[in-house]
Specification:
Largest interface: A-B, 81 and 64 residues
Number of domains of chain A: 1
Number of strands of chain B: 27
Distance between the termini of chain A: 23 Å
Bound molecules: protoporphyrin IX containing FE
Largest sheet of chain A: none
Order of helices and strands of chain A: HHHHHHHHHH
Largest sheet of chain B: 7 strands, antiparallel
Structural class of chain B: alpha+beta
Radius of gyration of chain A: 21 Å
Number of helices of chain B: 12
Number of helices of chain A: 10
Shape of chain A: flat
Strand content of chain A: under 5%
Number of strands of chain A: 0
Distance between the termini of chain B: 44 Å
Shape of chain B: elongated
Strand content of chain B: 25-35%
Structural class of chain A: mainly alpha
Oligomer: heterodimer
Radius of gyration of chain B: 40 Å
């Protein structure tokens, strides 16, 4: 009964995310047609220092005054996302109530919970820091992710396997989902950074790319989110190892999922070192961050589907 | 000789450079991937042989290159050993630099402040010492370490950043030491214990046992675990039917010199006995049978451990009756906890719990065996010297429900299926050094959090009598007059201001009165990805009585 309401909420959230994504796509499309004032391109040049907005806010770019249409679509997109996120969180909570436990027992529940955290983190970034330029990629991610969750990964409510009855498991999952949300947002910022630097080099920053912050600011957003996520991910792996010690009597066993978590961790360690190494700053570091995001997703979903190990949970 | 030294020096600096560390890390990450995607011998030997069967062309090559035991392979070890040498070579010099830095005052800063990322300058009506005192107050309040020179204040904060970074990297080392220690002295063994039976912690009682090179059997804590009963619950509903829901082993634990203590052993809740941990790893069924031989004597009676083959616990096993006379007997077959007809083999199990138990066996007979003393697996049958019992040209298949009895043809004996018991697979392990690994990891997380969040920032305030602004082209004489060799155009690096004392002290009284001074405030962040510099420069400028807009040359610099 409650489980049915949860399902309804989840499916509704997919539809709403899709609508929000459409709104942001329209925002982009109208930004494309709106003529972009040339000075937006010059922001890259050194010496162009006077009259800048306080460049500390990650948002700060000198972009042209947006047209009314662009602004309207953008606001509508955010408004729909707020409703979608509320529905989504309701779905997760109801799922937990229906199961009588924390809703982290299988792939479906992990994905829906992690994406709820992504949605909340995104809305905080938009409403507090004005980072609305994340709208299109994030709603795209949420639409695809939630869409796959309710179609491919869906399983009915059931109890937990005995191995999952552990405080450390709960800690492990919360840390993993939060770190995952940050990896996603950092990865999106890195992808945008790569697109934006390419456009800047060609001197053709137009449309959507003209509306995202400068490459430098994108780089900073990416670094800050990943610098937040990395210690948390380290902690996630440590908590998982402690849990494994309780459940299986060994804290590390090179299980495929464990191994891939370590690979993800190493990729982000490479990212942090890359930023501190001449010749690796900027583009190469951003590419490493994108590889890290793929590695994270592959570990999260791919390993469970392709490789069997101790971490193959009930119902995928 | 000289060449060798030069070469070694080159090798060392290359190996310990940040770039090498970066590349080694990347290589380590790439090298670990096949260990995740390919089946690995230590964890999944069946998967490896399946893979070799499926890919006879390149499978053996992967095997030869160590791809089925990546984490035990020489090349993987080479990568992480190089990485850790590089790490040591990186930590040592950095620690030395760090210790020197922590004890020293911040340096005086670059010659020209206007080239720094955050810079502001303007006139203030106050004495130089007042301005600098204000600056100093602001800086100490904001936890900067401050250096006061004539006409200038330099400050730095964020030493904890490097502390955290060093702690993190050192913890990686201590973690490795903990792991190495663990692999030397740890042991891990498993034993199958049937309900009603007991396990004593001695080497002979283990089914499987593995230990590090430094292990000695005196490390095994003396204790006995008796399995009184084992409760299992399986999902009977329509969702995830048959999934395990609860395991609970009721055990009696005896340690020397004290009476038996009743405890409950569950998944995620291991027992801790004398430093060893006892985990519940698996479970299964042991049919209880009574076998009479051709002479009519009971030749075997008791539970026999069968090993589960599928999720519904269809279990395979062998009942050996070496003491049967005139012929010895052996039975080979499966136990089905919930037998239903179906499948190619005729009968399958439909549920993991016992609802309709059935035992299906083939029978083998042969002359009594000469005792060789050779150990033999209890789970497989060595058929040499045995012939399968046939009737009408077909193998005899015994199908027994609980309580049923079967008379073998030709008076060779009989078998009774008395019932069944559960067994549990216990794992006993001890890994010393675990606390060192855990402690290192936790400390590493803290260090990393510090190192990634603490701002590393330097701020500078300089005061010169008015009319001198760094932007103006000022005659050299005026520059000297201002006592600002720090303003010498083009100088780079840190230059000590050469003014011997503060103007306010030795100047005539007329110059002491509040006067119009040019105050320059500037700052820079040493770690990337930080914002807020301009705000802080502005705040410091305001604290010095200056109120102007700040230029920020760093934020939009090209890559
Ligand atoms: C086992 C291998 C290594 C791992 C996993 C690793 C990991 C990390 C991580 C995660 C960071 C960022 C967090 C922090 O700043 O504390 C970092 C920073 C740093 N690492 Fe390593 N590291 C390793 C080896 C090395 C080596 C061999 C060197 C020296 C060549 C080195 C030099 C540095 C430096 C200088 C930083 C600071 C970068 C900055 O200022 O942002 N690391 N390392």
């Amino acid at each position: 009964m409650i489980a049915d309401y949860s399902n309804l909420a989840m499916v509704t959230s997919v539809v709403l995310y899709l609508l929000a994504m459409t709104a942001h796509a329209l925002e982009w499309a109208s930004a494309r047609t709106a003529r972009v004032a040339e000075p937006a391109l010059v922001s890259v040049g050194a010496g162009e220092t006077a009259g800048k907005p306080a460049a500390d806010a990650p948002v700060a770019t000198d972009r042209p005054v947006p047209s009314r249409r662009v602004e309207l679509f953008g606001r509508v997109g955010v408004a729909i996302t707020v409703v979608a996120a509320l529905t989504h969180v309701t779905g997760v909570v109801l799922r937990g109530i229906a199961a009588g436990r924390a809703p982290w027992g299988n792939m479906y529940e992990f994905i829906t919970t992690s994406l709820a955290i992504v949605a909340i983190a995104y809305l905080v970034l938009v409403l507090r820091y004005g980072m609305r330029w994340l709208g299109l990629p994030v709603t795209l991610l949420l639409t695809i992710g939630q869409g796959l969750a309710v179609t491919v990964f869906y399983v009915q409510v059931s109890e937990l396997m005995p191995a999952l009855h552990s405080v450390w498991f709960v800690i492990h999952i919360i840390a993993a989902a939060t770190a995952g949300a940050a990896f996603n947002i950092g990865g999106i910022a890195s992808i945008l950074y790569l697109l934006r630097t390419r456009a800047e080099e060609r001197g053709r920053v137009r449309g959507y790319l003209a509306r995202v912050p400068s490459a430098e600011a994108l780089d900073r957003v990416s670094y800050r989110t990943l610098a937040f996520a990395f210690p948390l991910w380290t902690f996630t792996i440590a908590a998982g190892a402690i849990w494994a010690q309780y459940a299986w009597g060994r804290f590390w066993g090179w299980d495929p999922k464990e191994t891939m978590s370590l690979v993800t961790w190493i990729v982000y360690a490479v990212y942090l070192h890359a930023r501190a190494t001449a010749g690796w700053k900027g583009r190469r570091a951003a590419i490493v961050a994108v590889i890290g995001l793929f590695s994270f997703w592959f570990n999260f979903v791919g390993i469970n589907l392709l490789v069997s190990g101790l971490h193959s949970y009930a119902g995928i | 000789m000289k060449n060798l030294v030069a070469w070694l020096r080159f090798a060392w600096t290359t190996l310990t450079s940040m770039r090498t560390a970066l590349i080694l890390l990347a290589v380590l990450g790439v090298a670990a991937v096949p260990g995740s995607l390919l089946p690995q011998r230590p964890t999944n030997p069946v998967g490896v042989s399946d893979f070799l069967k499926a890919h006879p062309d390149y499978g053996p090559w992967l095997g030869r290159l160590g791809f089925f035991d990546v984490f035990g392979s020489a090349w993987f070890a080479a990568i992480y050993l190089l990485l850790f040498i590089s790490l040591i070579g990186c930590i040592l010099p950095r620690t030395a630099v760090y210790l020197r830095q922590v004890r020293a005052l911040p340096d005086a800063g670059p010659g020209r402040l206007d080239r720094l990322p955050g810079f502001v300058s303007g006139p203030v009506t106050a004495t130089a010492s007042d301005v600098l005192a204000d600056a100093e107050r602001y800086l100490t309040e904001h936890r900067y370490r401050v250096r006061r020179d004539a006409g200038a204040v330099s400050a730095e904060r964020g030493y904890l950043r490097e502390t955290g970074n060093l702690v993190f990297h050192i913890c990686l080392l201590t973690m490795l030491i903990g792991l190495g220690w663990g692999s030397l002295f740890s042991f891990k063994g498993t034993a199958i214990v049937v309900e009603g039976q007991a396990f004593s912690n001695t080497l002979t009682q283990y089914d499987e046992f593995g230990a590090g090179a430094g292990f000695s059997s005196s490390q095994l804590a003396p204790f006995t675990v008796r399995l009184n009963s084992f409760d299992v619950k399986f999902e009977a509903g329509t969702v995830q039917t048959g999934a395990a829901r609860e395991f609970n082993a009721h055990v009696g634990v005896t340690v020397p010199g004290s009476p038996e203590v009743q405890q409950s052993l569950q998944v995620n809740a291991p027992l801790q006995i004398g430093g060893d941990s006892v985990h519940l790893l698996g479970h299964g069924y042991a049919p209880v049978v009574t076998v009479r031989d051709g002479n009519g004597d009971v030749a075997f009676s008791g539970p026999v451990v069968f090993l589960p083959q599928d999720a519904n616990f269809a279990s395979q096993g062998v009942i050996k009756v070496p003491d049967g006379r005139p012929e010895r007997l052996a039975f080979e077959g499966i136990f089905l906890p919930t037998a239903v007809s179906g499948g190619a083999s005729g009968m399958v199990s439909a549920f993991p719990d016992v609802l309709n138990p059935e035992l299906l066996l083939n029978v083998w007979t042969g002359p009594p065996k000469v005792e060789t003393g050779q150990p033999e697996s209890v789970y497989s049958l060595d058929r040499t010297g045995l012939t399968q019992l046939m009737r009408d040209g077909k193998p005899v298949t015994v199908g027994l429900a609980v309580g049923a009895n079967y008379q073998l043809p030709d008076g060779k004996g009989s078998i009774t299926f008395d019932g069944w018991k559960r067994w549990t697979k216990l794992q006993v392990s001890n890994s010393p050094g675990g606390w060192l690994v855990l402690g290192s990891v936790m400390l590493a997380v803290l260090g990393m959090a510090l190192s990634l969040t603490v701002k590393l920032r330097r701020l500078f305030v300089r005061v010169t009598p008015a009319t001198i602004t760094p932007d103006e082209t000022t005659p050299a004489a005026a520059l000297r007059d201002a006592g600002g060799s720090s303003l010498t155009a083009g100088s780079s690096g840190s230059v000590e201001p050469t003014v011997p004392e503060e103007p306010a002290r030795d100047e005539p009284a007329s110059r002491r009165a509040p006067d119009t001074m040019t105050v320059s405030v500037a700052g820079l962040d040493r770690a990337d990805g930080r914002g807020g510099l301009t705000d802080e420069v502005a705040a410091l400028a305001a604290a010095c009585g200056l109120g102007v807009t700040v230029t920020d040359t760093n934020e939009e610099e090209p890559q």
